[in-house]
């Protein structure tokens, strides 16, 4: 009996290990639900959150016996109240008691606060045991001196702080009640059960069924993308509100944004601009909203106007098709998300299928939270990433097969992908140089000419759209690229110092963003201290250290290196010119997600022509990626629900 158990454990230890990890993750989810605050964030299309300039202060010196503030709880599970203080007051000397009473004046909880609690903060966090049935009930916050000791602290009155939508702004003392998520939330529990069962099934087939890696990826990414599309509130993705307006105007046939009062501006119905909610439930409560053009409003297109229509082909197509069948904008937006995901998943699946080496690396890149967020929302980044990845994979496929004669379909595929990349972002233009890897000395003149024509076409299209985009930047930001170029040439050492300073101080942040960190608006994202980016980065390094090797010539290898350096440099310089104010000591506007497309080239450059003995257990490696993505996305969804 013991021998049979030992043999069973030896045979199935990897699968059992994954099951144990799933159990640990479920424990983390349960505790996260228990301690997490209810999400009160509104993903506002216009982002018109204002801060009042004139604050009113309430002093609490010794001669004042007590300060009180009544409020009515707006939700159940009241657990905390933040009281805002005058953080600019450097003479705070406080020993006070803060407490809360119910409507019958029964003390629920009180805490003592000393001067240490007021240092380096602009609010006092008064936390107490969760009051489950608190909704619509009145409570009183009171502040008293501790044993008649001297106290001197100033509280803030009637101030509208950024995004505190649940605040009592007309009160004597400015307070912000905080409510915890309900641990009995049926929707959250249903989601966790379904997602866990599906992930368990994926892990099972990974260990016991002989499916190819691209098929495992296809099933996994479909499951994750469906949950992400449905559960992520509209405009929770990075810049998704702006991507929505650009995709919508393209779907309506307006390929170029307008210019009004010397500024990139387009007009939209108020229904389109106000299509936002706090969470999944509020989004779907907007299903009855009907589109109308009675009330139009101008919207700032400063940055979105530089995106070409090709960047929003999937989203605009989804919006256009759904408009034929319904006039509900909420359905248009989700149709754009669905079509964006369909394009990405199809292209990335094909990339994994045809690439001769690096399938595990692509499996990881395709399941990073930052990647899933890029194509499951209305962002243009996902379509571009899929296009670049398929472009590289197809070229490697042709190189690996050493095809001297390319068929018409090969030229068509290369041309389509070249057009998409060229009309998307200037900074990724260096990828077109990979086309020249297909040219060999003994190739026919027809092949050489066709590849050169495709590369030249991409360059030409990039220059044409760059000219159009520059006009919007010039009008909107008053961009003077000549000034920046002259400054770089005049002071090259200072420019290099700014460059080095930027990456010396922010590389950790960029790596965190690339591998699953801050990928959503307003803090509903994986924490910067999360273990997710660290583990994802380790998995990427393991993929590089795997024994997969691509037999590239020295020239081919160094072409990949130059593409990496050129792309990296263009990302940095373009953001320095377009987003960095004059006089800044660093490059502004750089985000980690911009570097996602160069992860595969880095892998290929390091792996080419190097034989390694160590290898990765494929089942364990793929399971680890799936579990990591499952954990990170579910933590986000708990906030959204």
What does this protein look like?
This protein is α+β, with helices and mostly antiparallel strands. It is 51% helix and 11% strand. The protein has 19 helices and eleven strands. The strands form four sheets. Strands 2-7-4-5 form a four-stranded antiparallel β-sheet, with no helix packed on it. Strand 4 (96-101) and strand 5 form a beta hairpin. The two termini are 47 Å apart. The relative contact order is 0.10. Residues 40-63, 158-171 and 519-529 have low confidence and may be disordered.
Keywords:
single chain; 641 residues; alpha+beta; four-stranded antiparallel sheet; three-stranded antiparallel sheet
Molecular shape? globular
**What fraction of the residues are assigned to beta strands by DSSP?**
5-15%
Quick one: biggest sheet?
Answer: 4 strands, antiparallel
Q: Radius of gyration from the CA trace? A: 28 Å
Number of distinct beta strands: 11
Strand order of the largest sheet: 2-7-4-5
Structural class designation? alpha+beta
Helix content: 40-55%
> In sequence order, what are the helices and strands, one letter per element?
HEEEEEEEEEHHHEHHEHHHHHHHHHHHHH
């Amino acid at each position: 009996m013991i021998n049979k158990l030992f043999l069973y454990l030896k045979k199935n230890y990897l699968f059992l290990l994954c099951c144990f990890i799933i159990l640990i993750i479920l424990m983390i989810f349960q505790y996260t639900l228990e301690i997490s605050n209810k999400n009160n964030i509104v993903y506002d299309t216009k982002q018109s959150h204002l801060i009042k300039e004139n604050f009113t202060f309430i002093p609490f010196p010794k001669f004042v016996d007590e300060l009180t503030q009544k409020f009515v709880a707006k939700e159940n599970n009241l657990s905390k109240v933040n009281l805002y203080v005058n953080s600019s007051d450097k003479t705070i000397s406080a020993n006070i008691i803060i407490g809360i009473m119910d409507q019958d004046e029964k003390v629920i909880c009180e805490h003592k606060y000393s001067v240490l609690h007021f240092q380096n903060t602009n609010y006092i966090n008064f936390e107490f045991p969760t009051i489950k049935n608190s909704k619509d009930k009145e409570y009183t916050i009171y502040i008293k001196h501790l044993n008649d000791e001297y106290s001197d602290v100033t509280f803030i009155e009637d101030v509208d702080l950024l995004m505190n939508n649940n605040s009592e702004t007309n009160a004597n003392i400015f307070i912000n009640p905080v409510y915890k998520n309900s641990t009995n939330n049926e929707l959250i529990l249903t989601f966790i059960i379904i997602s866990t069962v599906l992930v368990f099934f994926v892990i099972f087939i990974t260990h016991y069924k002989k499916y190819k890696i691209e098929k495992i990826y296809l099933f996994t990414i479909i499951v994750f993308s469906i949950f992400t599309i449905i559960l992520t509130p509209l405009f929770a993705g990075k810049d998704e509100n702006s991507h929505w307006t650009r995709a919508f105007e393209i779907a309506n046939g307006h390929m170029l944004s307008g210019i009004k009062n010397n500024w990139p501006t387009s007009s939209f119905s108020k229904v389109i601009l106000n299509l936002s909610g706090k969470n999944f439930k509020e989004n779907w409560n907007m299903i009855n909203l009907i589109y109308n053009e009675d009330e139009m409003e101008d919207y700032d297109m400063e940055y979105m106007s530089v995106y070409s229509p090709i960047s929003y082909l999937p989203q605009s197509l989804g919006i256009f098709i759904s408009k034929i069948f319904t006039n509900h904008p909420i359905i248009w937006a989700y149709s754009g998300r669905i079509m964006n995901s369909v394009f990405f998943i199809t292209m990335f699946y094909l990339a994994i299928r045809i690439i001769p080496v690096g399938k595990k690396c692509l499996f990881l890149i395709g399941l990073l939270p930052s990647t899933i967020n890029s194509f499951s929302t209305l962002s243009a980044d996902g379509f571009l990433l899929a296009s670049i990845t398929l472009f590289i994979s197809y070229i490697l496929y042709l190189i690996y097969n050493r095809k001297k004669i390319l068929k018409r379909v090969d030229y068509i595929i290369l041309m389509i992908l070249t057009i998409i990349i060229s009309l998307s972002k200037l900074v990724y233009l260096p990828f077109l140089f990979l086309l020249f890897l297909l040219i060999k000395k003994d190739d026919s003149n027809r092949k050489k000419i066709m590849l050169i024509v495709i590369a030249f076409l991409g360059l030409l299209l990039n220059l044409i759209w760059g000219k159009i985009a520059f006009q919007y930047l010039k009008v909107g930001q008053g961009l003077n690229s000549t000034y920046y170029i002259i400054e770089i040439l005049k002071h090259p050492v200072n420019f290099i110092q700014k460059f080095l300073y930027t990456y010396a101080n922010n590389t950790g942040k960029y790596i965190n963003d690339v591998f699953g960190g801050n990928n959503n608006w307003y803090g509903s994202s994986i924490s910067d201290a999360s273990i997710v980016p660290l583990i994802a980065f380790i998995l990427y390094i393991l993929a590089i250290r795997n024994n997969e090797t691509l037999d590239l010539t020295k020239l081919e290898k160094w072409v990949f290196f130059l593409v990496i350096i050129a792309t990296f440099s263009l990302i940095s310089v373009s953001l320095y010119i377009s987003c960095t104010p004059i006089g800044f000591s660093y490059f502004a506007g750089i985000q980690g997600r911009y570097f996602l497309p160069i992860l595969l080239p880095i892998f290929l450059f390091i792996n080419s022509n190097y034989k390694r003995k160590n290898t990765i257990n494929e089942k364990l490696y793929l399971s680890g990626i799936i579990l990591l993505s499952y954990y990170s996305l579910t933590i986000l969804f708990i906030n959204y629900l």
